[in-house]
Design the sequence.
């Protein structure tokens, strides 16, 4: 049995796709992991784990935040056809209960384990954007895991994961606009924009808002005074 491996924090800089090239030189895949929605006032956090096969490269693998919606959808389709992925979702209630840091770690771990449970060929290693995810206690705890900041810029696998998570979460928030039209979730996706804050001023918080986040906004220090929107 291999010894347990902690997540390894990697300093920058290094060449783009360094870990991809290491994996592919062994004819092995690489798993990239990222999240979307950590800084939002409303909605879930969504994480994705993408297993890129050896040699897959495309200009589509960029930080999801700098791609247009059409480019993200195109990249999502490409990843779906040429790689395998899993995603996990944790709700605003769980974020309020555990805090966003712990919730994101739990959500990332869940996405990774789901992916590996459904795919027989395991990666050479796992790369994660910024978060020290631990797989200790799972059957995958011996797979090396590296995390580093600005992951989408330095790793195609992490960029692919960011695209999957972003598209899935954006679609969810667009659908929520039909349930809660006054908040304009399709426009801001739950982020702390002026439009979103104006909606909170008008309607109070809804059932998908993160109370622990809103309570830190200066204008909403007394969250009990807000009315829950119907």
Sequence:
């Amino acid at each position: 049995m291999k010894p347990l491996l902690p997540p390894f924090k990697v300093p920058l800089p290094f060449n783009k796709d360094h870990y991809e090239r290491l994996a592919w030189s062994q004819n092995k895949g690489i798993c990239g992991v990222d999240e979307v929605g950590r800084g939002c006032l409303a909605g879930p956090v969504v994480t994705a784990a993408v297993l890129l096969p050896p040699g897959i490269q495309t200009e589509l693998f960029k930080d999801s935040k700098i791609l247009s919606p059409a480019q993200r959808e195109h990249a999502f389709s490409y990843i779906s056809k040429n790689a395998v992925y899993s995603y996990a979702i944790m709700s605003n209630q769980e974020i309020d209960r555990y805090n966003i840091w712990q919730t994101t770690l739990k959500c990332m771990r869940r996405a990774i384990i789901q992916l590996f449970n459904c795919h027989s060929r395991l990666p050479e290693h796992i790369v994660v954007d910024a978060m020290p995810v631990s797989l200790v206690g799972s059957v995958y705890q011996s797979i090396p895991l590296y995390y580093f900041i600005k992951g989408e810029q330095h790793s195609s696998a992490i960029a692919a994961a960011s695209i999957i998570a972003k598209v899935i979460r954006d679609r969810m928030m667009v659908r929520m606009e039909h349930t809660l039209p006054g908040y304009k979730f399709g426009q801001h996706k739950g982020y702390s924009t002026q439009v979103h804050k104006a909606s909170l001023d008008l309607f109070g918080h809804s059932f998908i808002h993160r109370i622990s986040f809103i309570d830190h906004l200066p204008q909403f220090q007394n969250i009990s005074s807000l009315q829950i929107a119907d």
About this structure: Residues 223-230 have pLDDT under 50 and may be disordered. The first strand starts at residue 7 and ends at 9. Residues 156-179 form the longest helix (24 residues).
